[in-house]
Amino acid sequence: MTLPTMEIHDVVARAEPLGEFRRYRYASSLRRRYEKLARFPEHYLVFGDAICSFNPVYGQGVTVAAEEALTLQQCLRAGSNDLARRFFRAAAKIVDIPWEIAVGNDLRHPDVKGARPPMLRFINWYIGKLHLAATRDSTLATAFLKVVNLTMPPSTLLSPVIARRVWQGNRKPGLSVPSPAIEAASRNSASS
């Protein structure tokens, strides 16, 4: 078994397909930098995938589009003067973090073409270590999910508290610090 827990194994082992097998195809993530244009057609805007289309595996596209829609609403409340420039600058800030997450993760795979500067290589190494430790530490798993679900900034994964848990979770398995939730679940299952 290569799954992190028996519970996942049990679910997968009993699962039945909902339909026919379908092939997954996605060429690449694509970001258009409208905020860098000197001019944009008046009375015309784009948002969502027309600004940035993400690999659907990461589940960020709808969240980013919703945030862009709220931003567009704020921009419209401020008036239509210079609307495209104001909106595209604000939308670029919304896209920056999920774009870095998606592209950075894609570059973990050796077949993906692209530059891998030292900082990106470090982050990808660290996230790999975080993933390993998170299989036994729900605090780490929750922190990671908050980042990928865009409710917390990526910098929170580098906080001293999280970094220490990552380090401890990658020591010999007997020496790692389990999360309080995992300890409680173990005590409850032992007392049953």
Summarize the structure in words.
52% of the residues lie in helices and 2% in strands. It is mostly helical. It has 2 domains: 30-98, no CATH class; 115-191, no CATH class. The longest helix has 24 residues, at 83-106. The chain is globular, with a radius of gyration of 21 Å. The two termini are 26 Å apart. 16% of the residues are buried.
Question: What layout of secondary structure does this protein have?
Answer:
Elements: H1 6-14, E1 30-31, E2 52-53, H2 61-77, H3 83-106, H4 118-134, H5 138-148, H6 160-169, H7 180-191
Helix pairs in contact: 2-3, 4-5, 4-6
Structural class: mainly alpha
Uncertain spans, ≥5 residues at pLDDT below 50? none
What is the total tally of β strands?
2
| Proportion in helices | 40-55%
One letter per element, helices H and strands E, the order comes to: HEEHHHHHH
Strand order of the largest sheet: 1-2
Share in β-strands: under 5%
Mean pLDDT: 86
What would you report as the Rg, rounded to the nearest angstrom?
A: 21 Å
**What is the count of structural domains?**
2
Helices, by number, come to 7
Rough shape?
A: globular
Main beta sheet, described? Answer: 2 strands, antiparallel
* Separation, N- and C-terminal Cα atoms: 26 Å
Short synopsis of the structure:
By secondary structure, this protein is mainly alpha-helical. The chain has helices at 6-14, 61-77, 83-106, 118-134, 138-148, 160-169, 180-191, and strands at 30-31, 52-53.
What are the main properties of this structure?
192 residues, mainly alpha, 2 domains, two-stranded antiparallel sheet, 52% helix, 2% strand, globular
